[in-house]
Amino acid sequence: MDKSWMHSDRRSKAYELGVEAFLNFSVENLLTTTHIHCPCVKCVNLKLFGVGIIRDHLYFNGVDQSYKNWTFHGEPWEATTNASRNVEEDDDHSRYSFVSEEIEMDDNDFGDFGSDPYEFANVIGDGDQPLYPGCRKYTKLSALVKLYNLKAKYGMSDVCFTELLILQGDLLPEGNTIPASMYEAKKTLCALGLSYEKMHACPNDCILYRKEYEDLTYCPNCGISRC
Questions:
Q1: Burial class of residue 120, CB neighbours in 10 A (0-12, 13-18, 19+)
Q2: Average per-residue pLDDT in the chain?
Q3: 201, 209 Cβ separation under 8 angstroms
Q4: Which backbone phi and psi does 130 adopt, to 5 degrees?
Q5: Residues of the chain with pLDDT under 50
Q6: Given this model, what pLDDT does residue 177 score?
Q7: 62 phi/psi in degrees, rounded to 5
Q8: Helices 182-191 and 140-154 meet at what angle, rounded to 10?
Q9: How far apart are CA 134 and CA 191, in angstroms?
Q10: 183-192, pLDDT tens digit by residue?
Q11: pLDDT digits (tens, 9 = 90+) for 112-122
Q12: Per the confidence metrics, is the pTM higher than 0.85?
């Protein structure tokens, strides 16, 4: 299918026709008009809306131009294409920038995707799976990023996070893809070039000692000692 419209001016006829062709393609393949991943630059396929809202987003926000394989909208995953040694690093940063944003990391923390693009492609292909059969809101990867964000925000230990993953796996429908341990979750995040660091947190959960609070010895909110 012609995807050249994704690089066209949003005011052009080519972009207009391309948006309609994309929406028609999605509806035909997903057989729904109410729950479709939005590929605009702000939603990056993490949010679901009806066709009308997605159309508005594509005009107001623009389409994520790095979304070249429409796996969320009915296209099969092309592992060999995406694993090519010629995949540009900028495309990977753009499509999966939501990972660093969710975990509040700088771009420098992303690591080098080019070190093993085959492993990267396998992880992303695996991560594109729905969280559980029939789930339309989260993929394995987006759910993991959300959960990891909670770990980082509230200073969970690795043991606590593993227990949370196990509980989530039990609560979700059979066949879910949630990792069963911190080890498995860490493998996925490390394959994306991400690392994590432990941070001090206020015992009353007021703040994390990072950024402007990094050198403080007392919590500015409740006054309790950092130690």
A1: buried
A2: 75
A3: yes
A4: -65, 155
A5: 79-121, 193-196
A6: 86
A7: 90, 160
A8: 110
A9: 26
A10: 778 777 665 5
A11: 433 444 444 45
A12: no
Q: Token digits for 196?
A: 């994590």
> 121, 128, 113: which is closest to 82 by C-alpha?
121
What distance in Å separates the CA atoms of residue 169 and residue 174, rounded to the nearest whole number?
A: 8
* First and final C-alpha spacing in the chain: 59
Residues 165 and 120: their CA atoms lie apart, in Å, by: 23
Distance of CA 145 to the CA centre of its chain: 6
Q: Which tokens hold the place of 14?
A: 């080519």
- Taking the CA atoms of 66, 129, 31 and 43 in sequence, report the sign of the dihedral they define: negative
| Rounded Cα–Cα distance for residues 83 and 163 (Å) | 33
- Find where tokens 């999966």 sit: 96
pLDDT digits (tens, 9 = 90+) for 85-109: 343 444 444 444 444 444 444 333 3
Torsion on CA atoms 78, 81, 87, 89, rounded to nearest 10: 10
